[in-house]
Design a protein that fits this description.
Largest sheet of chain B: none
Structural class of chain A: mainly alpha
Number of helices of chain A: 10
Largest interface: A-B, 76 and 85 residues
Oligomer: heterodimer
Number of strands of chain B: 0
Number of strands of chain A: 2
Distance between the termini of chain A: 29 Å
Radius of gyration of chain B: 22 Å
Radius of gyration of chain A: 21 Å
Chain lengths: 313, 195
């Protein structure tokens, strides 16, 4: 997902660079405040650790191999801000030493892999963590967070490429998300396994996370805000092309436009009186609301049961 | 900005100007960068074989992304994807030549001179010093795992073993960071620069 120079337009590269600069600035202040004068050593050496971890290859059937991307894992293990800075250092070294990712595109790469990857990975893991009562469940939560962060970063990358005018949105978005949904499975497995190994060793040795976790309330508000932003920003770009299931039904002659969707609460994700865009956004926000309420209910029911104590990161 | 940091800062600004030129100038003009790079390569000796090795993945990525861009437009407008791929290769040449002629220490010095926060540049410096050490540690872990018969494990166990290895590597990185911090403190280092 390392974008080279040339594919992003200058305004998009500059905007992503400005957003990354702001996020890295916040991360620097937060790390200095929480880690004090340990910050330099911890960030520098753990960034080297992440870099070395990315060099460990995992064999894949077919004679090839893959490696850890590490954005979400860094956010989970090191905390969101230290993780973001560690990934930023790794991306800077990759850009200048290996020419892996462009310099003008560095802001976009930091935004996609660092800001989106680390922060969303950490937020999603923070949301899932209260439900995970054993080490295996925590590893599973980390895997889910890593998969979501990988796909989300790919989606944002597709938006940047299409805003630059180089790529068409619909095809690029579906290709990037589709390919990274598969890559994300590997990332999820590796991240979950690494977290399980980290927790096991932490239980034996007792090492704390570098920065405190995001407070649960902040994670919940952040997650809802992220979901709502995706709905509002991406709704105008939703594809008119039928999806895989609709296309297959069409081939089979089983599609029946107008009747299959009419039975739903919001036919074709629309609320008739609100117009096309407003209807899609309102239906999306309604869906987000239902999901949040369901998650809250499940969490309450789950936390009501006494749970065995587990080591915390 | 003293003389020692002025040159790296000027180099970084020069690199940015060349990359903006490669991204924004009319396409034919960007080819003027090749003679410039050739002259730089003569003045500052470049290992051309390493330069080509560095450039090869950029050409492959630019080609794949160019084809992807062409496909995503359904082939309606072929000019823009082709242009983007050519610009990516030109920018890659500039970046690879910069990497050949500039060490990362110089880059960090230049970033510091241009006002990058000290925490980020110090972390980068320490990262640079630790990469080889942790790389050796990774190799030692892989060797000892192979010596214990880890290579003969099933695919699933192989993945578990390697993930555990990454966990140990990251733990050791945190341990090492604590030791580095204590050593820095013992030598009178402080986050606040003394005046």
């Amino acid at each position: 997902m390392h974008l080279p120079d040339g594919f992003l337009s200058l305004p998009v590269a500059a905007s992503a660079g400005a957003a990354s600069t702001a996020a890295v600035g916040i991360a620097l202040r937060r790390c200095r405040a929480t880690l004090d004068d340990r910050a330099e050593a911890l960030l520098g050496v753990t960034a080297a650790g992440v870099f070395a971890a990315q060099m460990v290859n995992f064999p894949i059937p077919g004679g090839t191999s893959g490696h850890l991307l590490g954005g979400a894992l860094a956010g989970i293990l090191l905390g969101p801000w230290a993780g973001l800075l560690a990934i930023t250092c790794v991306l800077i070294v990759q850009c200048f030493v290996f020419a892996d990712g462009g310099l003008l595109a560095l802001g976009a790469n930091v935004f996609n892999i660092g800001v989106i990857g680390c922060l969303s990975g950490h937020f999603i893991w923070s949301l899932a963590r209260p439900l995970a009562t054993s080490r295996t469940q925590q590893a599973l939560a980390a895997g889910v967070a890593a998969w979501c962060a990988t796909v989300l970063a790919a989606a944002v990358c597709a938006v940047e490429l299409s805003l630059s005018g180089t790529f068409g949105f619909a095809r690029t978005f579906s290709l990037m998300v589709g390919v990274h949904a598969v890559i994300g499975v590997g990332e999820a497995i590796i991240s979950g396994m690494v977290l399980a190994a980290w927790l096991e060793r932490q239980r034996r040795v007792g090492v704390e996370s570098l920065t405190p976790s995001v407070r649960p309330e902040a994670a919940i508000v952040g997650g809802i805000a992220l979901a709502a932003t995706i709905v509002v920003v991406l709704a105008p770009f939703s594809s008119e092309v039928p999806d895989g299931l609709e296309r297959t039904l069409g081939w089979l002659g089983a599609s029946d436009e107008g009747s299959s969707n009419a039975a739903g609460l919001f036919p074709d994700y629309q609320i008739p009186m609100l117009g096309e865009w407003g209807g899609t956004v309102a239906a999306g926000l309604f869906g987000v609301g239902i999901l949040v309420a369901s998650a809250w209910l499940v969490t309450r029911l789950r936390l009501a049961k006494p749970a065995p104590s587990v080591p915390s990161t | 900005m003293n003389g020692q940091s002025r040159a790296p800062a000027a180099k970084l600004i020069g690199l940015l100007v060349l990359l903006v030129f490669a991204a924004a100038a009319p396409l034919l003009w960007t080819f003027a960068l090749f003679p410039v790079l050739a002259v730089v390569g003569v003045i500052v000796p470049i290992q051309w074989r390493r330069f080509v090795r560095r450039l090869a993945p950029i050409i492959v990525i630019a080609g794949v992304m160019g084809i992807g861009a062409f496909w995503s437009h359904s082939g309606a407008s072929s000019r823009r994807p082709l242009e983007a791929a050519v610009r990516a290769v030109v920018a890659g040449c500039v970046l690879a030549a910069f990497g050949e002629t500039t060490s990362l220490i110089e880059v960090i010095r230049g970033m510091r001179a241009l006002g990058t926060p000290a925490l980020l540049t110090s972390a980068l410096g320490l990262m640079l010093r630790s990469i080889d050490v942790l790389g050796d540690e990774r190799e030692a872990l892989l060797r000892s795992r192979a010596a214990r018969g880890g290579e003969r494990a099933s695919r699933w166990d192989e993945w578990r073993g390697r993930a555990g290895l990454i966990g140990i590597l990251l733990m050791r990185a945190v341990d090492r960071a604590e030791r580095v911090h204590r050593a820095m403190k013992a030598r009178g280092w402080s986050a606040e620069p003394k005046r």
